[in-house]
Each structure stands twice: as structure tokens, then as C-alpha cells.
Flagellar hook-associated protein 2
Amino acid sequence: MMALSVGGLGSNLPVDDLITKLMAIERQPLQKLQKQELTLNAKIASLGQVKGALSSFQTTVKSLTDPAKFSSINITSSDATVASASTTSNKVSPSSYGLEVTQLAQAQRLVTKTGFASTSTAIGGGSLTFSFGEQNGSAFVDNPNKSSRTVSIPPNATLATIRDSINKANIGVSANIVNDGINGNRLVYSVADTGVQNGLKITAAGDNGALSSLTYDPAAGASANMTQLQAATNAKLTLDGIAIEKASNTISDAIEGVSFSLSKVGSSRVTITQSSGDAKKNIESFVKAYNDLNKTLDDVSAIGKDAPKPGEQRPTSPLSNEFVIRSIKTSLRTSFNTVATGLSGAVKLPSDVGITFDRSGKLTLDSTKLEKALKDDPQAVASLFGATAQPTDKQISFLGSTNQTTVGSYDVKISAMNYGVVQGAAVNFSSPVSVGAFDLSIDGVSKSFSGLPAASYSSATSAAVDLQSTINRSYMGVTGTPTFPQLVGANNFAITVDGVSKSGLSIPEANYADGDDLKTALQATLDTAFGSGKAVVENNGGVIRILSAGSTNSSIVTMGAGLEFAGFTSAQTDATRPSVTVSVDSATGALQIASNKKGASSTVTVSSGLASLGFADGMTNTGKASVEGTIGGFAVTSVGSRLTGNSGTPIDGLSIDITGGATGDRGSVNFTRGFAWALDKALTDLQGTNGPIASRQQGINTSLKLISKQQTAVSQRIDDTEARLRKQFNAMDEAVSKLTALGNYVTQQMQAFQNAKG
């Protein structure tokens, strides 16, 4: 800008006004550049708005690429005050269960019998050892999953100090002081975990027994140093008539994929249903999100519809007539009209599930058509939107993929399972099939069998059921080898069957001549204790076997102390026994025998006798640490039962779970990419560094830099022009002033001459 210069003082000409008007003309190019700058900045702001709208829409699109969005599991309890339930897996099947809770799991609470006058009176020091377990008769059986914990008590500790020492040790037992107003201050122990195996036995050491009043021996009964306020108990319930006993009120292993939370004694019915309601809501949200995006695109590129007034231009939005908006709309519409890669069947396009455009470009949803598609084939709708894979083998499930996974159908070949398993040849059951004596070995333990319960079988399924039951029951139970005759005097023993513990049991004092006599006496006692038919006692040539009457993996017998006369030892159990699952291959109809143990020590060997069921003599298989195999002939990474395609291959990131079955050809996995996946990729490209938005932003920023340079140059030129004009006008003003003075002088001289002449 020029410095202030006041002209016309000599000539009386309006110099400043003249220069101002001349400079207004000179500034017109600068004003044009400033207007262009405002227009371009408005475009940059609008492009940012478009990018934000695309990002928001993409968030909705991404949610539809998850197949789980198209099928939800709902679980309800008829009386949630008794028990509530939740699902832990999408693999849960629709069903209904009757639940009867007869006892809740509780944690033990103990209080000292001795009261202390003050919490600050010195008691003594030493240590307190807390053991967790269960009293069985005269023996305290430690919880195998919890080690004893010792808390150091400082010398001359007060009741308050002892309380604080226990709480700071964080041993799973909390201590509090209660003043009952009669006996004084009493220490209360509260165990954190519920269940009978979390009962306490507390011993003290040091300081001449100063801490003895704070100890507890459950075997002492009423004479113990502490009173039991609440006993440690297990939760007891029946599920569709099946008795279940657990240490916790939260039960997640009774039904696969379902977790129960027990609240009180009573009955309830738990119902599991499968619904596509969430899928409809998600698609409705998708349609709304697209229309919101489309409105944003229209708003930033709109051209006024009304005719402009004379001399005015038609109003426009910042991005009107911009190619970038047309490019975005074209890309999105192309995604909607392109058949999703790899799809077959009736659902290939969004329009097949009721998603179409109206004449204005707005997305619409035909709810009736969508609901029908979801009802007829929810998996097809899921495949339309997301990246999914359909295994032909029912014992293979799709876990996930990456952006690098290539669409296609890939054969699955399994060379090793993570458990021992053998598969026989398919057998024709059109004529009844009989099974005689056979021999096999499970996890290294060999057994001989006299045959199966039925004389013959007319289906693979019925044969599989009896074969599994026969094998598993042969490995169940605990065995003792007493000597006979056996003189049994006063006795007191404990035993746990299917999680239910009983102690203080006995058989009549007598001289038992053989195994049958002892078996009869034990069976009568167990029937009285557990109920008839809950536990079974067998005599096999003088070898006594006690087993659960159940046939599941939770049918376990554990011995307590006191049955040494029958050849049993304390804590003897069949919890780690071998067991198998016998199934029928869905593709071939052949029978499979699989060990339920995982890893390299899991083996199945059919030594002889099962040829009628398709198993050759000597057939054997040993498990591996993880499943091994290929997908589409390509190498994979194995972890447990999961196979994942390696980087650099067409199956890069494709992950499947081998949930069962045997080795060999396991069908194929057809991997497809749905419309939502393709749309998500298109949205990523539109917003990427090489996309149309970034390209247009770069072009505008280049123009802004050029305009900035032009503005600088024009501003300098304006300043120079104004300086030049002011210099010229000042010179003119000075010349005019001199001429005026000269004229005045000449006038004066002529006037003087005239006066002298006259």
C-alpha cells in the first residue's frame, strides 16, 4: 500500500479522488483472483464434507460384510429370577430345555467362636495356612486345582492386623471383623469361590498356639474353633431330567454354546431361537445411510432450479458440474448393478432382496421381498453382502478371510487330525449287520469286547450309538482288587459319582467270601446313598469295578478314603479315562471312531473284529498337535483345529475350522465376495490417495497456490502503479502551481504597466 499523499494543493485539482478511481480499475484483476480463491476454498470444504459422508456410509457397509449380522441367536428364560441364559457361540441350534434348580452353589463362611474385647489388643504372631478342599469322612481331600496358601502374621498382631494381613495376601479368602454386642469382636472368613471343593481347613504355626482360635478343622465338627455360618455347596439342577452338579452358579459346559446363570431355587424353561430380525434392521440402516450420502452429494453439487433475475447468475453449489461427483455416483451405482463374484443361485444382486433405485436416484427397500429372501435362505443373503465361504463338509466351518483371499472353490484335504481317528469303509445296511467279539485300543489302553448289545443293525446310526456306548463304558469306572475271603470290620468310606459326593458310608461288618458277596453289599450301600441305578458295581473274577450309570464324559467316579479293604485308594478316579465319539460320515455313510483326547498321545487302533462295520483289522491312527492338510492344494498354517491359508497364495487369509471327522478328502470350500465387500472396496478407492477426491483436491490446491502467486504479483503491480500515478500527479501539480504563479506575476506586471501608461 502507498503512503498517504495529499495532492492538488497547488493546482486545486482532486488528485486523490482521481487516483482512487484509477486504482479501482487497476484492482479489478485482484478482486477477480480473490473471488476465484473463495470459490476454490468452498470446493475444498465441500470435498471434505463428501469424504466424511463416504466414510460414514462405509462404516455401515462394513457392518454388512460380517455373516453373523444375518442370523442372530435369541435365548430367553421363562423365569429369569431362577436362571438366565446367554449364548457363547453362533453354532447353537434352536431348542428348548426344562431347567429345575434344587440347590445353589455357595461359598463357605466361618466365624470365630472366641470374641475379642478390642480389635487393637495383641493376640500373637506366626502364620495361618489356608487349605482348600472337601472333608470326606475323616480325611480332608485337597482341591487339586488350588494349592494351600500361607499368610504371615507379625509378632503381637492385633485382630485388626490379622484381618489386614489376610486381605493383603489376596489368597481367595477375605477377612472381616464383626462386633456381635455380646461376645465382642469376632473374625469372619469368607471364601471367594463357591463349591464343595473350596471348603477351608485352617492351621496355625508359631507363638505357642496364640492363633489357634483362628483355625478351623472341618473334621472336628461342633468342637471346631470356628462356627460355619454357611457351608460350601455345589449348584444342583436337572436339565430335561438329566442331573447336573457344578461348583459354580454360572454353568457354561452343560450345553455347548450356552451359559446358564442360576439365581435361586425353582424351575424355568430356556428357549433358544434363531432370528433374522437384526438382518432386516441392518439392511434398513444401510439403505438409509446410502440415501443420506446421496443427499450430501446432491446438496454440494446442486444448481438452482429457479430462473435468475436480470443481470444475475443462476445460484449453484460449490461442486456443481464437478466431474468428481459424477465419478462417485457412477462408481456406487456400478457396485449395485454388478453380480457379486462367485455367487450362484437366486440371490446375486441387491435387487434380488428388494434393494432398488427409484427415478430420483433414491435407494428403496421392498421389505416383503427382503423378508422372504431371509426366510428362504439367510445364508444366501449373507453371501450377497459379505465375504463368506461355504464348506460342503458339515464338520468344517468358515472362520474368516482377508482382502488378499481370492474368490474360488478349493478342495480340502486333511492328512492328520489333532486326535486319533479311523474311518471304515461304507457298509450296506440293507441286510442286517451283526457284530461279534472285537479288540481295540484307545489312547494306548487296549480292551477286548464280546460284541454289541443288539444281535444285528439295520443302519449305520444305530450301530454307531451302541458302539460308542459299549467302548466308553468299558473304560469307565475305578477298579479294586481285594483279597478273599475279606473280613470287613467297622468301616466308613466316601465316594463321588457324577459330581455328587457322599461320605460316612459303610457296608455291613462281615466276612465276604468272594467278589459277588462284596459287590452285592457295595451296590446296596450306593443305591441307598445315590438312589437306585445311579452307580453300578461289577465283579469281574474278583476285580471290583464301580462306575457311573451315565454314559457321558461327565459321568465320573472318584474314590474318597475308607475303601482300602476293597482294593481302592483315596482319590482314585476315572476322570482321565479314554473315551471316543463314534459318528457317521455325512458324505460316505462310513463309521468313524475318534478319540476324545487331543494331541500326539491320542490314538485309535482297531485290532480285530469290526470288519462287518467297515474297519479293517490293524487299522490305526495317531493324532497330531494340530490338524494338518491343504486347501486347494496350497500350504496352510495349522493351529489346533484351525487351518489358515499362507501369504502369497490364492487362499491367503482363508481360515477354516475342522470340528470333526477323519483324514482324507473333505469336500471343498467355495469362497465368495459379496456386494457389500465390493462396495466397501469401492468406497476405500474413492477416498484413497489415488481416488477422484484426492485428485481433485490436489488440482484445487495447485490452483490455489498459483492464484496466491498471481495475487502477490498483481498487488505489487497495483502498488507500483499507484506510486507512479502519485508521482506524476504531484509533478503536474507542481508545474501547474508554477505556471499559476507565473501567470499571476505577468498579470500583475501588465496591470502595473497599464496603470503607469494611464
Q: What stands out?
A: The first helix runs from residue 15 to 26. The CA atoms of residues 339 and 349 lie 6 Å apart. The mean pLDDT is 88. DSSP finds eleven helices and 41 strands in the chain.
